[in-house]
Write a structure and sequence with these properties.
Number of helices: 25
Structural class: mainly alpha
Number of domains: 3
Largest sheet: 2 strands, antiparallel
Strand order of the largest sheet: 1-2
Low-confidence stretches: 5-20
Helix content: 55-70%
Length: about 500
């Protein structure tokens, strides 16, 4: 789930008003558009011009805070983080002199505080991040109470209520301690209401695309409504997306059998050297190529490693380079890259943690399982199944290999619509693997729960989600728990 936090940056950008010191002029709109496209130099020039025309308008300061936020979050560089915090203080100080009776006053403060909170999470400053979230949450709740008819409140509150509802049960004590309240249905309901208003009321039309992106994200990751998410992605794709919107689209297509679509979008995207580069797009490009076993993908991971100066997904990139070597019979190259997994960066994300675990184990992945795993991840289910067909037992010599084999077969049957066979293999994986730290059993319980939920079999869905949450200390713990918790939340069950 940590990788998806980048998506949150879409949720706190836009602001619009025609009130005294909060005026979103045509020049501000142009600057905002350049920020979204990561063209920070051009955006700052436009904002400087706006300040000369309307020195009392706070909106240019607000837009510039988004530049600081994006730069710090994307780059993960300490200097950018310090600049964000410094400029945040100056921005809030200036805002303190503005009209506190405007509905934009507390909303602006809350969004700026949320930006800092999100970046602090990435820099692992968890305690102060929690404080920033709490402050922003209180400001949003106070603004809602003071201005209950203020439509833009629904954006941030909808996002926060949905995310609070998706917090795994082992972290509920923290949300309760901080006074956070919210559920997935509540948050998504607020966003859907905002979507309807933005489509019918010209005053709020500027929120339509942004709301569609947020709903796309939640439909896919929290409601598991893949078709609805893909339909929303199709609307966004027609808008000539910049790097951030492209990332949003790829986050859906990459995990919904849209691997070919990911490659098409990435290979046809224009490269503007004046923009601040989102190097993570190279990581996604390499992943999509790896999913079709195309050695051309190596260059994208190498580009990511060479150009990205932050920490996230660096270990994972070396692991995937190692897999490319392994797929091509280069065992020495595999070990060399896995040595770099141990030496480079940290293990902030689940993918980096898994890469490090593989490196420390010194165990080479079973090639007979790696190939179908990658093909499955790309949505090539028949090819994945053909890789497993007619393989002798000797191809899967270890307990982990045998456990993964039943799990992979279950996943393929599931995706191919053969639900009864999928459940049988999921149950076999759970029975054999629940006492071990491998993630296959927990994920099997999660996916079996989704099958039952989609069949409106609430009893068995709840049973599976709770079974998933009962398994502890396994791989991808936080990510899997969050999804199981979201499932219980959708069914109205408190764990």
């Amino acid at each position: 789930m940590k990788k998806n936090i980048l998506f949150i940056l879409f949720l706190f950008f836009q602001i619009s008003a025609s009130h005294a010191e909060f005026v979103f002029t045509p020049g501000c709109l142009k600057a905002y558009d350049e920020v979204i496209r990561l063209n920070f130099v051009k955006a700052k020039n436009l904002l400087d011009a706006e300040r000369k025309l309307r020195p009392d308008n706070f909106i240019p300061d607000y837009i510039e805070s988004n530049i600081d936020f994006l730069r710090a979050f994307i780059s993960e560089e300490e200097n950018d983080f310090e600049l964000l915090k410094k400029n945040r203080s100056a921005c809030l100080s200036r805002l303190g002199n503005e009209d506190a009776n405007s509905p934009w006053y507390l909303l602006s403060k809350a969004e700026i505080n949320l930006q800092v909170a999100i970046v602090k999470l990435k820099f692992e400053e968890y305690l102060t991040a929690a404080y920033e979230f709490r402050r922003a949450y209180r400001q949003l709740e106070a603004n809602q109470k003071k201005f209950p008819g203020f439509v833009p409140n629904k954006k941030c509150l909808g996002v926060l209520h949905a995310l609070i509802g998706a917090v795994p049960s082992n972290y509920k004590w923290l949300t309760n301690l901080l006074g956070f309240r919210g559920t997935i249905p509540q948050g998504i309901g607020e966003l859907r209401e905002l979507q309807k208003i933005s489509e019918t009321n010209p005053q709020y039309a500027y929120l339509k695309d942004e709301t569609n992106i947020m709903l796309m994200f939640f439909e896919f990751h929290l409601l598991k409504n893949n078709q609805s998410a893909i339909e929303l992605a199709g609307k966004i794709e027609t808008k000539n997306p910049g790097q951030l919107h492209l990332f949003a689209l790829l986050s859906i297509y990459l995990y919904s059998a849209g691997n070919d679509k990911c490659i098409e979008l990435l290979e046809n995207r224009p490269i503007n050297k004046n923009e601040f580069q989102l190097h993570y797009l190279d990581f996604i490009h390499g992943t999509a190529k790896l999913n079709i076993l195309d050695a051309d993908g190596k260059k994208y991971f190498e580009s990511y490693i060479n150009n990205f100066k932050g920490r996230s997904f660096v270990k994972a990139a070396y692991q995937k380079l190692a897999w490319f070597d392994l797929l091509n019979g280069d065992t020495a190259g595999y070990y060399q890259n896995m040595k770099l997994v141990k030496e480079k960066s940290n293990d902030f994300t689940d993918e980096d943690k898994q890469a490090l675990k593989e490196a420390v184990s010194n165990e080479i992945p079973n090639i007979y399982l790696l190939r179908p795993r990658l093909l499955f991840d790309g949505g090539y289910y028949d090819l994945a199944l053909s890789e497993l067909a007619d393989k002798p037992v000797s191809c899967f010599p270890t307990f982990r290999d045998q456990l993964e084999l039943t799990y992979r077969i279950a996943r393929i049957f599931d995706k191919n619509g053969m639900k009864v066979k999928a459940i049988n293999y999921y149950e076999k994986t759970i029975k054999n693997g629940e006492a071990y730290q491998f993630y296959y059993a927990a994920n099997s319980a999660l996916f079996e729960g989704l099958i039952h939920e989609n069949l409106s079999d609430t009893t068995n869905a709840v049973r599976c989600y709770k079974k998933c949450l009962s398994m502890r200390n396994h791989e991808f713990q936080n990510s899997i728990d969050q999804k199981a918790e979201a499932g219980l939340n959708r069914l109205g069950v408190n764990n």
